[in-house]
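User: Now give one protein:

AI:
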Amino acid sequence: MPDIPGDPVGAVVAILLADADVAALVEQRGFGGELPAAQTRDMPRHAFVVKASGGTAMNGQGFAEYDTQRVDLYCFGRTPAEAARLADLCGLKLRRARRQAAAGTLVHSVQSAGGFSSGREPVTDWPRAWRSFQVCFALTKVGP
């Protein structure tokens, strides 16, 4: 089997969408990278986007095939309070995530990377809340 890189962004999206509480709110509107154009006409409503972000790798100098990636979680709602509640819920679920395979990626842990913010999306003025996490994951894809 050829080496296929793990996808920490896709794994975080999959972990959140697999949670019944989150899924009930977002109705499968969880995305990696950006909100698809087809979704924008119905915004603002509950949805989330996970994006890769900068930060320091925390895997040390060893040869183990894992890495860490900071990801930013952007949550939307009809009001700033709805967006913040969704971000709080997603944040809690990610902090509780345990070692698992999600979207073909073995996730060892998801930890808060510190800080949060809320406000409005700069271009669209949609209510938005933001949280940051550090994902520890295997470098190569797992499973079929």
Summary: The mean pLDDT is 92. The first helix runs from residue 8 to 17.
